[in-house]
Amino acid sequence: MKTLLVLLSLVMASPVVAQVPYERILEASSEPGHWLTYSGTYGAQRFSTLDQINRDNVDELRPAWTYQARSLQKFEVSPLVVDGVMYITEAPSDATALDLRTGRPIWQYRRSLPDGIVTCCGQVNRGVALLDDQVFLGTVDAHLVALDARTGRVRWDIEVADYTLGYSVTVAPLALEDKIIVGISGGEYGIRGFLDAYDPVTGDRLWRFWTVPGPGEPGHDTWSGDSWKRGGAPTWVTGAYDPELDLLYWGTGNPGPDFIGEVREGDNLYSEALLALDPDTGQLVWHFQFLPHDIHDYDSTQVPVLLDAELDGEPRQLVLFPNRNGFYYVLDRATGEFLVGKPFAKQTWALGLDAHGRPIENPDTIPSAEGALVYPDDDGAANWYSPTYSPQTDLIYQNVREKGGIYYLADATYEPGEIYMGASRRVVTGEDPGGFLRALEPLTGDLVWELAVHSPPWAGLMSTAGGLVFSGTMEGDFFAADALTGDVLWRFQTGGAVYANPITYLSEGRQFVAIAAGNALVTFALPPE
Amino acid sequence: MVHPMKFLSLATCVVVVMWVSVLGVFCVSPAAAWQDRENEQGQRLYESQCGSCHGPQGNGGKGANLAQPTLRRASSDAALFTIIRRGISGTEMPGSPLTPGQVSSIAAYVRTLGRVATENVPGDGTRGEAVYRQLDCARCHTVDGRGGVIGPGLEDIGARRSAAHLREALLAPEVAVPSGFLQVRAVTRDGRMFTGVRVNEDGFSIQFRDLSGQFLSFWKDELDVLDREWQRSPMPSYEGRLTPDQTDDLVAYLVSLKGTS
Known about the structure:
The structure holds 2 protein chains of 2 kinds. By secondary structure, chain A is mostly beta strands. Helices cover 3% and strands 37% of the residues of chain A.
């Protein structure tokens, strides 16, 4: 007993240490051994300066450990790694902490979900955010939960929106200095979209930016009648942050109903846009709408990639945006000025972009009773999965889906919590859909190289200072390509389709690469010295 | 307990009822006999299908404490029936392949656990909360997600454990160490010793938290000694350190912690 009391007194003396203060995330590029935020850094380049695994030795890469998720849903997680622990989510809305050395679980948060949850595209989750000693998880019943990072025990659990109306959270939250940013899913259910910020300590909501403006708000007149009430514009993919400009960048999804424009005449702000928000207030600083009045369900919910570069002899603060609609965009991220727009995939919905980047729509592709063929289909040329920019090669890499669809108008009557889309889709007979890993010149969108893959991919990318780009395929291959040439230098058959972004980190001084594939999280490393 | 009348045929029972009515003696009706059989079946199924997690008297363990008048997730009989049939998504409560009749029997039996098991908790929960603070229980335990990580979270301990169990855990914690909180002692090959609470273990590795809450992970071939200290607990006994009233109060406070719905 005496020993125990002595030990307990030691417990009392030990301070509670914040694991991931904001300053660490801010300087994430200075500690590449960890992966502290969804896209690696706030700038979202998804590039790691680790180079132990490189062009010369990547062919020796081999599995280290595997973690099997219990869910058979798509495993879309982008893991975070800090101080010997990997934090993942498992569908539908569970979180797990794994010991980095062994892959063994440290804790698991299993959420009990109500019946009646609706999600368009799987009850999935793309990851957690970390801030101080807490883990933040969004759930498909549209809650945000703060967990004790040491135990997974619930600190607080708040409702973001009403799941019975079709709202859900699948996005990995983004932790800023003193707030947690959370987007919403449900663009196929006639929701009214928003982006929220919450107090990390109390769970109180600090602000909400409605992506569909209400009466009296700027942009409200871009919606006819009361269509704004069901206007969609969800925010279901994690954005980026520029600490110098103090601007938060976040993409918005399709207006609702997805395929019928007549019931929502106007540009339908702020659907299909990139938003630049003041993170302290949630006030809109600028926006660029890629696709006014979309009728093809081309959510502009991709990861914005921040890049400082010289353009036409002038240093510029840029944001790169390979859009699901098939165009590659470059904007000035201080002002929102349109600089470049160029197709990076087969697209037929636009005849081109005007000088301001506004598309000239092709009337032949509007969904109709007879059926209208359009490229890409509504899964897009890109989607939620991440691009990567490598400062080593000065190239941006994007997994590209090449697939068309034929769209037939259908009824869209709004009923709370029910599908509100307005078209049915048929595949193109005789077409063999495919895909590519493409390397683009970041300031022009010009194609530098491409690597064909068998099926339209759903895998995100990561580039490293080892001269590599990591990607995956629907057939279960996880591979590393030479970032300069696109040559495949290593591959591993994981046994399950890759619907996730890769990450890399150090464990006990050795570099590892991790990817979710099928129902497994697999890590790889070179053989020990 | 099988009622001695339950095997009488309907006709026999009617006759007996006529006779005993005259004599003024109570008789079990056919409906009551049927109910007895139902209860017996429910108990038998409960013990074989549910008891390993919820305890033989429903006092909880790995599963929830069912020996209480209202169940947090099953406020209605229909909800209880659905939970037994389908399980609870996201938890370890599985669905059941039993027939609807068998599920109904279990549900009816679970309701009786709550009726008979209303515990006498004599203490005062408000005073108990003060005792909790005074003892600094939060050094090792969490309530509302805040506190230490060495001991079990107590957010919903009152929904999971009976008062009797909690009293025992306070007075003789080594008898009531919950699963997942095994105390271990490890000595590395280079002579460093660690004591803590096991988080996970397999044939080749072990993970635990030392008593400061620090997470540790070892390959077993890095260790010279690995003792699993069954029957020990990092928690001291409060036998003799609390007055009977304080113990009652603390138990009453813990019983009041039901978690969020």
